[in-house]
Amino acid sequence: MMVQMFPMRSLKAAAFFIFLVVFMAAEAQQRDTLNRVKYAPEFKFKEGVFTHFDQVRQNNPIPKSSIITAVPYDDPDFFERVLKEKKIQLFDNIGVKQEIQTKNIWGFSRNGVLYIYLNDSYFRITIIGSICHFVGSLTSYNRNSGNPYYGYGYPYNYSPYYNPYYSPNSTNATVEMKQYLLDFKTGHVLDYSEESVAVLLMSDPELHDEFAGLSKKKQKQLKFLYIRKFNERNPLYFPEI
């Protein structure tokens, strides 16, 4: 049986080709981070309104000066007052006047800090990274049970005293504070849970497998630690201002 031997020249050519591919890939990666700054705690987001998440990723909001409003630009509550309206008018990046419903706006940045619109309110994103973390509120509404004696604090909602202010169609509002995660790659917002952390870690297989190998109790205790590990291994980069 004869074994086919490749000429030395062909082997050298193949080796050179592999080197060239690796070199070009490294150069492309370097170009990708060129003129981009790695996120650090002292990083400041540009002040303005983000109409969609891609503007957040590029740190390129609509500045105050492009928003058409009677609210003074130096008002410390400028964004809250402007975004309280159902619609805002502004000039986009190419100077075209637009009218946008405020419920469709992603959020805003003030003093370098990022705020996201969720559950009809704006919340500060306290932890920035490839996986962000923040606390927000969720309001739920429950109709009364139909008992006109309800609401006096007795066990099982029973009271011997009639409530003259009772309305069978009234609702009770309950405000619950919740923790959320933001995937900075997609802009998706998830509940702060072990399941959500496991999903977000999938883009780092080694870290994901390590987390998946923990017991449920350990996952619950260490999920924030793994978010921090993920952010350290997968840093954010923004265009340099």
Question: Separation of termini?
Answer: 66 Å
- What is the 3D shape? flat
User: What percentage of residues falls in helices of 4 or more residues?
Assistant: 25-40%
Query: Can you count the beta strands?
Result: 12
- Overall pLDDT confidence: 82
Question: N-to-C SSE series?
Answer: HEEHEHEEEEEEEEHHHE
Instruction: Specify the number of helices.
Output: 6
Strand coverage percent: 25-35%
Cα Rg: 27 Å
Strands across the major sheet, in which order? Answer: 2-6-7-8-9-10-11
Mind describing the biggest β-sheet? 7 strands, antiparallel
The computed structural class is: alpha+beta
List low-confidence stretches: 21-32, 148-165
Describe the structure.
- The chain has about 240 residues and is an alpha+beta fold.
- It has a domain at about 35-120.
- About 30% of the residues lie in helices and about 30% in strands.
- The chain contains six helices and twelve strands.
- It has helices at about 10-35, 55, 80-85, 195-200, 205-210, 215-235; strands at about 35-40, 50, 65-70, 85-90, 95-100, 105-110, 115-120, 120-125, 130-145, 170-185, 190, 235-240.
- The strands form three sheets. It has a seven-stranded antiparallel sheet with strand order 2-6-7-8-9-10-11.
- A hairpin with a 2-residue loop joins β6 and β7 (about 115-120).
- The protein is flat, with a radius of gyration of 27 Å.
- The N and C termini lie far apart (about 65 Å).
- The relative contact order is 0.12.
- The model is unreliable at about 20-30 and about 150-165 (pLDDT under 50).
